[in-house]
Structure formats: structure tokens, C-alpha cells
Amino acid sequence: MQHHDGTDVGPPAAYNGSSIPLGGPGGGSDPALLEFLSQVDTRFKMNDLGSFWGMEDAFRALVESGFATRFINHELAQMVAQPSYLGNWRPSQIVIHRGSGFALSIWFLEHSRKYIHTTSFLGMYSPVGKASLYYDVYRLPANYKNSVFDPAVQLIPDGVGITGQGGILLLQSEDHVYNFHAERPLPVLSFVTASFQTMEWLFNKDNLYAWNANDAERSCTQLRVASYVLGRLSYPSSLEALETLVDHGHHSVRWAAMENMGRISRRAALECITRATTDPHPHVRRAAAATLRLSAPPK
Known about the structure:
Blueprint: E1 2-5, H1 31-43, H2 50-53, H3 56-64, H4 67-81, E2 89-90, E3 93-99, E4 102-109, E5 116-117, E6 123-127, E7 133-139, E8 156-163, E9 169-171, E10 176-181, E11 186-193, E12 199-203, E13 210-215, H5 218-233, H6 239-245, H7 251-261, H8 266-275, H9 282-295
Parallel strand pairs: 1-9
Antiparallel strand pairs: 2-3, 3-4, 4-11, 5-12, 6-9, 6-11, 7-8, 7-10, 12-13
Helix pairs in contact: 1-3, 5-7, 6-7, 7-8
């Protein structure tokens, strides 16, 4: 068993829902899949991330059952029989099951990425077929805090890894980062939790310093874009929606709402920005203080 695992491309950050009714021997009625999902529903709790690692035996049983191969063959057969069949495919994966705080999918590692990415979820991966998964491992330093981007943070090399057919990789993203190498497309059976971190950091491969950070959850990016659109439209009726987002749990959404509120009501925006000088996040506090300085009347 290899405990250093991960990927620079992963499934969406958050999952909620129920099993997708794929049908057939390779789909939702597969006995091995049903047993695995029963075990997860009983034993895994998102509010206790440690319980995820307790699912390794259940995931191993699913891997050893040959389910992934049956599932892929089932999907291909459906496409041949019904040219209009779409399934539950995404650009680089097909989702098998979305549950409360977890997801099971076939993820396709197609190419290496330009930057080294952190992952905001825990995961277990097993390559499907005879090809192996190769990756570099990096340790996150003591000055790394996921929610506060800092370009001075530098990754610490921590070895290399390989996982072959039937192996299981454990993605320990609380304190490690992984960079995968792909010479050809490789399907991987992926079992992951929902996001437990707010940001996805990108590190430069040459010097290993932090380069940028993205929202870990797609919904946060969508809310920031929505704030921008509401601000550009400048309808007074949009003010209430932006005032609601000012209390959002993600700092980037809060600040986007405040910024764009100013296009509708300067008074309302300044009230929120004044309160934001005591925001829990240092980036918001600094931005609020700078905005207030620029907004102050000349002496």
C-alpha cells in the first residue's frame, strides 16, 4: 500500500445527490458497486474526515472485483447500441455515483499540467488496466495556510511514487501535493470526498513557489462572476442579493459582493467595507482598509 497519492486533475470539489441509474451489469445494479455504496453510506461521515480512510478495505474490494472494467465496457456498449447515448460523462471523467460528501467516478488522466496543483479533498485512486500511475510528491511547509494565499510558500520535494494495476493510492492532501506524469491517457477509479479546503493553489514547477490560487469550489467562482454581472447591470433590485453575499463563508465571494455593490449604492458599499476592516480574512481586511483610504475625501 502506498500512502502518498494524488492527482493534479480531479473531480469537482463538492458532491451531493444519489446514485445515477445506469442499469445493466456494468452500471448501478452491479453487486460490487451496491455493496461498496452500502459500506460508504454506513461508515463514512463528512464531518469526520478520518472515517474516509476507514473505507480503504471497501474500496479495495471494489477494485479487486473488476467493477471498473465492467463499468467502462458497459458504457462503451451503450454508446455502440445507442449513438445518442450521453451517459454521465464530463470532460475528463464519468461520474458513477454522487453521495453525501463523496463521489465515485472514472477519471481520465490525459496529460501533465503546467503547474503543480493542491487538491481540496481526500481521495483514493486505482489505475484501470495494465498501465501504472507515476507521480512526484511534495510536502507543504509550515507557513502554508490554505485560505490565505502567500507567494512566499515553497513546496518541499518528498520523493516519487508509482502505483500499478490493482494498487491503491491514498491522496493525503492535508499536508502533501502531487504532480502526475502522463505519457498516454490513463483511466483511474476515483473515490473522493467533497472539498474541505477553500482554495486550490498552483505552484511553479521550476522553483516550486506558489504562483496563484483558485476557488476550490466552482460555486464560489460562479458567485463571484454573478456579483460582477450584477454590478455591471447596476439594477437597484440587485442590491439585496449582493448584501446577502457579503456574509458568504468564502472570503473571495464576500469581497466581490462588496466591490460590485459600489456600482449600485456607494453608501451601502462603504458601510459593508467599513465593517470588513475587521473581517476574519487578512486579504479582505487589507483590501477594505485600502479602499477606505482611497475613498476618503481629500484633506
